[in-house]
Design goal:
binds coenzyme A; 29% helix; globular; 154 residues; 4 helices; single chain; 7-stranded mixed beta sheet
């Protein structure tokens, strides 16, 4: 286990409205096509499950999911580039999945870019498998990119 994961200053907690500026710093540093602040405010307003990963009082990652009628949809999982590949993405997704189980979800779904090899490796190592393709789902530098739809039984 990475030393960072044992750091007593590292914790996951629910996102607050006042976190959105800091969350946007992480979001825009990690994605070529980031969500807007308005999307995060909407997710909080409608009661989606929104979490942040905090190290020494600084937000370094976030995760967003909806859980409705036995289905969990993971909508965003993001770590600041300086804190990727240290086990935090796995920790964040595990937390989201355990909340989904507590809320009686039986399946978790998510979409991921076909070119996002790190995310695909993470999700597959956690038991997600492909259940479909959404053609041209994401904007890309040249046209559009397909999404793989992944699912795991909870
Ligand atoms: C994808 C993302 C969430 C993964 O989180 P992370 O903290 O970097 O990943 P972890 O350190 O927890 O690694 C978990 C697994 O992911 C895979 N992985 C992580 N980084 C990888 C890389 N650079 N290349 C290949 N596989 C990688 C490995 O399978 C790894 O397991 P292992 O360490 O046992 O080999 C993170 O890289 C990120 O925020 N990327 C930008 C935003 C994004 O693409 N989000 C996903 C949208 S669907």
């Amino acid at each position: 286990m990475s030393a960072l994961l044992k750091d007593p200053l590292l914790r996951l907690r629910p996102m607050r409205e006042s976190d959105v500026d800091a969350v946007m710093e992480v979001e825009t540093s990690a994605y070529p096509y980031p969500w807007t602040a308005g999307i995060f405010h909407d997710c909080l307003r409608v009661g989606y499950c929104c979490w942040v990963c905090v190290l020494d009082r600084k937000i370094i990652g976030h995760g967003v999911m909806s859980v409705v009628a036995g289905e969990c949809h993971i909508l965003n999982v993001c770590l600041h580039p300086n804190f990727q590949d240290r086990g935090l993405g796995r920790k964040l997704v595990n937390r989201l999945l355990s909340i989904a189980r507590q809320r009686q979800a039986d399946t978790a779904f998510l979409e991921v870019r076909e070119s996002n090899l790190a995310a695909l490796a993470l999700y597959r190592s956690m038991g997600f498998h492909e259940v479909g393709i959404r053609r041209g789902y994401y904007p890309a530098d040249k046209g559009r990119e397909n999404a793989q739809v992944l699912a795991v039984n909870l």
